[in-house]
Amino acid sequence: MTDQPVVPASVSRPTIADVARRAGVSKGLVSFALNDRPGVNAETRQRILGVAEEMGWTPSVRARSLSIDRSFALGLVIARDPGIVAADPFFPTFISGVESELSEVGQSLVLASTTSQRQEAETYRQLARDKRVDGFFLTDLRADDERISLLQQLGLRAVTLGHPDVASPFPVVSSDDGAGIRAVVAHLIVLGHTRIAHVAGPADMLHATHRRIAFEEAMTEAGLDASRVVETDFSAREGAEATRRLLAVRSSMRPTAIVYSNDPMAIAGIAVARRAGLDVPRDLSVAGFDNTDIAEHVYPSLTSVATDVARWGATAARVLLAAVAGDAIDGRVPLPTRLVIRESTAAAPEAARTPPPSPLQTPSPPASPGTTTV
Q: How far, in Å, CA of 211 to CA of 288, rounded?
């Protein structure tokens, strides 16, 4: 609840002209005062602001947009299968972070969903033609992402979630996916796992590729086989199918741990493993990515890389608003990741049958469920 005056529905919204009449000044002076422009002395400005508050005056977004050629809205175009978007908590959480910032400054989010890149490009063009938005959030960056040049041609601002692999004039907000994956692999190696697999996202999405490369590099640096990788579309369905493929080998070749590129796939993988008669984590350790709310409440609770998606959305909104306003901004804003260790990871099943490591290599005891490590 606020202390703002309530204007009955039957009464029209007070205008700048109404405020000017009540304050005994010109409309131009009211406009300057309400928009915090120079040329109004402090006493007069305070009197005008007091009258506007008393009358319940609020700015008209339509009038503001017409006066300065701005829409006061930002756009997010999601080019994924709607079923995948609906099942993945990432986008709702990201959007909640964006909205937390936009609501504070009276701006809106225009959300569009497409199922093809051709339709996606036309959506950007249509929103630009209609002057519906002042800038865009570019998510799910792709290799040689054509959206970078498209938005430049349209003369619109943008912020990219992650670093594009092509030249870009837009500011970047990113999380260190590679560090998160490396932390998971290191955690599993300490637990004695040597046969570790990765269920990756689509190769044309840069963040999925970064996670896969980080996995392969971490495994190779540890002297372990990095070839157990299955590509998916990020859906729980394909995550489950990837798990079946990885487990459909003789036990001596089967992975003892699987690192998934998101939590929905990891949770689906746990179900597949248990239906196959495997105990998680005694027979198979499982780790996810994004640390979604459900990760803590499934059984066993899911070890996952936390990325603070809501903060990511809020930071991206602040950066994009600054870019639209023409303010000088730091073009690269990195956000940390952290590994949250829970019940789904434990000592490798063969650890008890292998000689203990030398004293210099003795691993630290596994963290208790719920422990957060950086």
A: 12
CA 311 to each of CA 90, 105, 177: distance values in angstroms, whole numbers, following the listed order: 12, 17, 15
pLDDT of 17-44, one tens digit each?
788 888 888 766 776 677 666 667 888 8
Angle at 82 between CA 157 and CA 175, to 5 degrees: 50
Query: Could you give the CA distance from residue 52 to residue 118 in angstroms, rounded to a whole number?
Result: 47
Residue type at position 137: F
Domains parsed from the chain with CATH numbers: 16-58 (1.10.260.40), 73-175+311-333 (3.40.50.2300), 177-307+338-373 (3.40.50.2300)
Identity of the amino acid at 99: E
Residue 319, pLDDT score? 92
Helices (H), the chain: 16-23, 27-34, 42-55, 61-68, 82-87, 90-102, 117-129, 147-154, 177-190, 206-221, 236-247, 263-275, 309-325
How many whole angstroms separate alpha carbon 85 and alpha carbon 71?
Answer: 27
pTM of the entire predicted model: 0.75
Q: Contacts by 113-120 with C-beta closer than 8 Å and gap 24+? A: 113/77, 113/78, 113/79, 113/80, 113/82, 113/85, 114/77, 114/78, 114/79, 115/79, 115/81, 115/82, 116/79, 117/79, 117/146, 119/79, 120/77, 120/79, 120/147
307 alpha-carbon distance from chain centroid = 8
What angle do the packed helices 147-154 and 117-129 form, to 10 degrees?
A: 20
Structure confidence by residue, pLDDT tens digits, 120-151: 999 999 999 988 899 999 999 999 999 999 99
